[in-house]
From TrEMBL:
Source species of the chain: Paenibacillus terricola
One term of GO molecular function: transferase activity
InterPro entries (alphabetical): Polysacch_pyruvyl_Trfase
Domain of life: Bacteria
Biased composition (Polar residues): 68-77
Domain Polysaccharide pyruvyl transferase residues, every copy: 14-403
Alphabetic keyword roster: Transferase
Name of the protein in its database record: Polysaccharide pyruvyl transferase family protein
Length: 463
């Protein structure tokens, strides 16, 4: 059995990164039996100990995929029972704060904004030096066991004040030292890069046998940094398009079964299927999920600015508009502590009196996040990994503009018209959202093509 070292950030508090790891693991398993060693760029390898894996999920994953995995308990765990409760007399049933949910609002004060970039970079450098003592020996052993080293997926080729560049340098340098093939897999790339970050990231790119970025914008940026990478670099898609196969849910489009590659249902990490779309005359109100992000995250990733108070009021207006249109509204997050805190402190108080509106439990596992999404008929969200799994499940999905990566991926799936500008009042934009359960005709062919390309690329680089 061949072994693959898969390095990413699945232990990130944003559960979208855990989703990336699980869907990549599933894609690898669909191409044959492989042993997958998961290695977090910032935290190291997970122990192959059953105490770190919920027994039920471990058995389901191994039985369904044939892949031997080393996983984190933050990515797995027994899946929740039905998380949404119907409101009584139209009143929302607001979720209580769970004991294990992370709830901490990111700072946005003047002191943080005034910290020089140079100081932040040197802080990251010294933190990385401290990680060396913890990570270098486990990494050396993991690379020694691997027949190939993958770095991905996720938005990794970015200069996070040297944090990711240093971590990627560590993995790439060890792969090169042991003469193991390196593949950068389904990563996002964005500038600006500092001079030193450029050196570290481009060194990794130049050693890599192949580079697959997840969108055309990332490809353009990377080739702008080094045109010589063009021969080995391709733009594909995000692995979360394989959410249905990973979680045992119906994929968008029945014709995928005849697309020439295995699709089918998987028993791995099952969550309940979404309710059938309400037909004309049905008494059930369509369920619309609102995936909310702390707008302070926009300060780090895009030129847009959205004050928390204004953002909370926008989501309140969105919930009111949808409730007035006959919908049940579900507010959810991707599990990041700052998103949870923003909902808890800003959005939840405004929505306590909104009819037919529920704040979902804050997810602590990827399965819980998928459970929230699967329960919806329509999804309107800002986080990329709330939108992509919803689209993969064939749910009408609308993305709130912020980071170019979301806008680019929607455009590549022929869904540019389903982007919502938060600068326009919610009663105007949300009031025109389609509730007929339909996606544009051009979407499904694009989805099928993207998934086929992912499947073929994984097969081409596996040992």
């Amino acid at each position: 059995m061949k072994t693959v070292l898969l390095a990413g950030v699945p232990q990130s508090p944003n559960l979208g990164d855990g989703l990336i790891a699980l869907t990549l693991n599933r894609l690898i398993a669909m191409r044959g039996t492989h042993r997958v060693i998961h290695f977090d760029l910032l935290h190291g390898q997970w122990e192959a100990d059953e105490s770190h894996i919920a027994a039920a999920d471990s058995a389901r994953l191994q039985a369904a995929s044939g892949a031997e995995t080393f996983s984190s308990s933050s990515m797995t765990g027994s899946l929740p029972k039905r998380t949404r409760e119907e409101g009584t007399a139209g009143r929302p049933q607001l979720a209580d704060i769970q004991a294990n949910a992370r709830i901490r609002l990111n700072a946005s004060g003047a002191s943080k904004r005034m910290t020089p970039d140079t100081l932040r970079r040197w802080k990251a450098y010294w933190l990385d030096k401290r990680r060396n003592a913890k990570l270098n020996e486990p990494l050396r052993k993991a690379v020694a066991q691997a027949d190939a080293v993958f770095i991905g997926g996720g938005h990794l080729l970015i200069d996070t004040y040297w944090t990711f560049p240093l971590a990627i340098r560590r993995i790439a340098a060890e792969a090169k030292r042991q003469r193991k093939p390196l593949h950068l897999l389904l990563v996002g790339a964005r500038g600006p890069w500092s001079r030193q970050a450029s050196r570290w990231l481009l060194d990794a790119c130049r050693y890599a046998a192949t580079i697959a970025v997840r969108d055309e914008d990332s490809l353009s940026f990377l080739l702008g940094m080094d045109p010589s990478l063009a021969a080995k670099t391709v733009a594909l898609a995000d692995p979360a398009l394989y959410t249905p196969e990973t979680f045992g849910l119906p994929a968008a489009g029945a014709q995928q079964q005849q697309a020439g590659y295995p699709m089918g249902r998987s028993a791995a990490h099952p969550v309940k299927p979404s309710s059938a779309w309400p037909k004309g005359g049905a008494s059930r109100r369509p369920v619309v999920g609102l995936g909310i992000m702390d707008p302070n995250e926009m300060n780090r990733h895009c030129p847009y600015r959205w004050e928390r108070e204004a953002c909370a009021a926008w989501w309140q207006s969105a919930a009111e508009t949808l409730a007035a249109r006959g919908c049940e509204v579900r507010l959810f997050t991707n599990g990041a502590a700052t998103d949870n805190a923003f909902v808890e402190q800003y959005v939840k108080p405004l929505c306590e009196e909104v009819q037919h509106t529920t704040v979902m439990r804050y997810p602590t596992t990827v399965g819980q996040l998928m459970d929230s999404i699967a329960d919806c008929d329509v999804v309107i969200a800002q986080r990329l990994h709330a939108c992509i799994p919803a689209l993969a499940l064939g749910k009408p999905t609308y993305g709130i503009i912020w980071d170019r990566k979301l806008e680019n991926i929607f455009a590549e799936l022929n869904l540019a018209e389903q982007l919502i500008d938060f600068r326009i009042p919610a009663e105007r934009t949300i009031g025109s959202v389609g509730l007929d359960g339909l996606l544009p005709d051009a979407f499904l062919p694009a989805l099928e093509r993207k998934k086929r390309e992912l499947f073929e690329h994984i097969g081409s680089i596996l040992p």
